Amino acid sequence: MGTDVHKVDKPKIPEMCGLAVTVGLISSAIIATVALQVEARPIVAFVLCISIAAAMGIADDLGPLSSRVKPALTTLAAVPIVLLGTYSPYMAIPFLGTTRLTIIYPILVIVAIAVLANAINMMNPFNGAMSGTCSVLSLAMIVYLLLLGRSTEMILPSALLGSLLAFHWYNKYPAKVFSGNAGDLSVGAAIGALVVMGRIEVPMLIAMIPHITNAFYLLSSAGGLRERREMPHRPTRLLEDGRIQATEDGKAPITLSRLILAEGALRESEIVNIMIAMTIASSLLGLLTLLLMRP
Amino acid sequence: MSSRLGSLIALIFFVWLSIVFGLFIVFRVIFEISLPWQNALTPTIVSVSRVILSAMVGVTWLLAWWKLANVYLWRKLRRHE
Asked: A94: which chain B residues are within 8 Å (Cβ-Cβ)?
């Protein structure tokens, strides 16, 4: 059980329930392979990728991993994608066109999956933040793939969207369940794997600007990789009326939630709605980028 | 609430513009660099220059994002003190 620190009465909430998303994704992927007779190799790589990320998350939930070990271990989630060769080294880049990155691309796959998994893990400070923003990202992936005419690749993002929406019902404010590191890391790894397998790297990089900038601000202002418990100066504080306020502590890290609260205190659900609206805006910019990249 | 959201979306728009403009600089300007003379070292000098200049564009991106977030945070916090 985890404590919901952003509530006045500090209720105890079940942890690691994000594993329901992982289980939903794995079962959907297996059903899709059998029912739609799609190629099994990418599905196997995807299932192994999210299972490894979930295992790392479980290990972190049960006995916290060090802030340096966790990101290093999440790189292992990318190994099935690289070993089973379920990626294309031809990457579409704005102003350059499609370029061949035979040697660099596998390294980029490993870095991208680890970075995205941890960026999504860092963007889950409030009820429904991860499930809400990642639902938007899954929908963005489906739209991008639809526009590119890659209908087969839309199966797994659709399964992810369905699983996340079902989970969001229970995780939204006031949360009845927490996703835990197990859920956050497996959803992050799933998005990373789908970005690579769907060949939508640049539009999704744009769609994930809120997540990536949040991770960048946090890492640069906290002076490197630090766990929440290792940071004595907090970016936000809970007021007696249940609203959340940004702190004026110069030593506290800069986070997206602190930027959102810089203009004044808000209720938790309002902060999450702003995070979701920002992800919708960045997803639309990703769509614009995709349209600009098309020949 | 809507003005707050507008400011935050403007931040995202700035990051998007900096990425697009940065990619334009890297692939349309830096990658087009060539030297007027040709000798055995020319390809190496050109490649190293491209990598260094591209890295400088990347660092400029990050510094700009960092500066903007800092200015935004402290200006808004002071206004609401």
From this structure: 20, 23-24, 27
Q: Which residue has the tokens 């809400």?
A: A132
Q: What angle do CA A79, A215, A10 make, to 5 degrees?
A: 105
Tell me if A95 and B76 make a contact (CB, 8 A cut-off): no
Peptide linkage before A174 cis (omega within 30 of 0): yes
Give the pTM.
Answer: 0.89
Domain extent, residue B43, equals 2-79
Nearest to A208 by CA among A218, A197, A220, A200: A200
Residues of B in contact with A264 (CB under 8 A): 80
B27 with A263: Cβ contact below 8 A: no
Helix (H) or strand (E) holding A100: strand A97-100
CB pairs under 8 A between A and B: 81
**Distance (Å) from the C-alpha of residue B21 to the closest C-alpha of chain A?**
10
Q: What is the pLDDT along chain A (295 residues), one digit of tens a residue?
A: 877 777 777 888 888 888 898 999 999 888 888 888 888 888 899 999 999 999 998 888 887 777 778 788 888 988 999 998 888 888 887 777 777 777 888 888 898 898 898 889 888 788 899 999 999 999 999 999 999 988 888 889 999 999 999 999 999 888 888 888 889 999 999 999 999 998 898 999 999 999 998 988 888 877 666 666 666 678 888 888 888 888 888 788 888 888 999 888 889 899 999 999 999 999 999 999 998 887 6
* Inter-chain CB proximity A254 and B11 less than 8 Å: no
B8 touches chain A (CB under 8 A): yes
- Residue A196 · residue A81 · CB < 8 Å: yes
Please state the domain count of chain B: 1
ipTM of the complex: 0.84
